[in-house]
Amino acid sequence: MSSPPILSVSELNRLARLALEKALPSCWVAGEISNLTRASSGHWYFTLKDAQAGVRCAMFRNRNQFVDWQPREGDRVEVRAQPTLYEARGDYQLIVEAVRRAGAGALFEAFLKLKAKLEQEGLFAPECKRALPPYPRVIGIITSPQAAALRDVLTTLKRRWPAAAVVLYPTPVQGVEAPAGLRAALAHAAQRMECDVLLLVRGGGSLEDLWAFNDEGLARAIASSPIPVVSGVGHETDFTIADFVADLRAPTPTGAAQLATPDREDLAQHLDHLNRRQIHARRRHLDALGQRLDSLARRLRHPARQLAEQRRHLGHLADRLRLARLARVERARQRLVRQSERFQAAKPKPMALREQTARLQTALSRAWANHPDRNRLAALAAHLGHLNPQAVLERGYSITRDAQGKVIRDGAPLREGDMLELSFARGGASVRVAGKA
């Protein structure tokens, strides 16, 4: 038979460590701290014991730096740890990953249960949150007068918004009396109604230290408060029921003071910006008014100058009127000349008619003297004499013509104002129709 392999001590311890870590995964272990040592490297070494046994524990610096409280000898704690073996000495030990005070697990379960209940009732709903006043005049602080957080809050308020008055509603923030005190402070603030916003603040601590802010009655008082509430409880990683039900949650008490107030420096810069914009807008408005005034000034003329221009315009209109009148008179004169020429062209010529008549008479006499039908010719001559227009005119008649030289035989078409030309045996005349018979 072959003999079993021979292991070195280090090989044995390594196999034992691997078997232990495989058999026992990370778990929570409760016990009491003893032999606590804080090494210069930052690591913690202690023994976790109960009445019957103890186990060595190591919590390295990269883990214990997240613990927000200082464990002491005799503290009852719960640790989440990985059972293992320290190979160099063969010592069984726990590598601690997290530590909390004993009972914190039960408290956390109660916290989660209450949180789920209130969330289902709608106390955390965003539509239930009230808006904070942008420029609060009075700020209420609900905390302990001895709390270091109060000094930080007052310092922040004085720096950011010194215009606001501050009212302190003192109350315990830790211990069995804290929940009732916090509720009473909220009721007192609601009764006096002197504040625009309330700051519910407390410094950091363990889950037990902050447990007063997980009270169901306090949560309902915050939800029913007529004044907006800003919670600033613990550190940034701490969450309480009050944080969820408050109108605004701040990571720290100082953060609550910052969220509840405007920064006067930012406000001063904003006001300065608005002032510069107003000055710029006023300057642009004045420039526009100046340009309009210049335009109006250019359009504005001295009354004497305006009268002179109106006189010149009136003289120009008078000249145009005079020229128009002369042109009209000239046109009328030319029309009259044309009508006169047409009348003269159409006017009978008595002298020429007499000469013609004389010639015709002489020729007629000669023809008559030589004509065999002398008697007939004499009769025709007598008849011709009756048709002679001049003979008619000699008897006192006249010839009437219109403006176009047409002989008027009927007075019906004539109208009042028509111009007529009359021809007599000797001379003529121009007349206007004044009326009709």
Please give the structural blueprint.
Elements: H1 9-23, E1 27-38, E2 44-49, E3 54-59, H2 61-64, E4 76-86, E5 91-101, H3 104-121, E6 138-143, H4 148-160, E7 165-170, H5 178-192, E8 197-202, H6 216-224, E9 229-233, H7 241-245, E10 248-249, H8 253-260, H9 264-299, H10 303-346, H11 350-370, H12 374-387, H13 389-394, E11 399-401, E12 419-423, E13 428-432
Parallel strand pairs: 3-5, 6-7, 6-8, 8-9, 9-10
Antiparallel strand pairs: 1-2, 1-4, 2-3, 4-5, 11-12, 12-13
Helix pairs in contact: 4-8, 5-6, 11-12
Please report which band the strand proportion falls in: under 5%, 5-15%, 15-25%, 25-35%, 35-45% or over 45%: 15-25%
Strand order of the largest sheet: 1-2-3-5-4
Instruction: Characterize the main sheet.
Output: 5 strands, mixed, barrel
Number of strands: 13
Could you estimate the helical fraction of the residues in percent? 40-55%
How many alpha or pi helices?
13
Q: Would you state the CATH class of the largest domain? A: Alpha Beta
Q: CATH superfamily assignment of the largest domain?
A: Hypothetical protein af1403, domain 2
Structural class based on helices, strands and sheet pairing: alpha/beta
Distance between the amino and carboxyl termini: 178 Å
Task: Could you tell me the CATH topology label of the largest domain.
Answer: Rossmann fold
Integer tally of domains: 4
| Average pLDDT figure | 86
Secondary-structure element sequence?
A: HEEEHEEHEHEHEHEHEHHHHHHEEE
**Measured on Cα atoms, how large is the radius of gyration?**
66 Å
Please name the CATH architecture of the largest domain: 3-Layer(aba) Sandwich
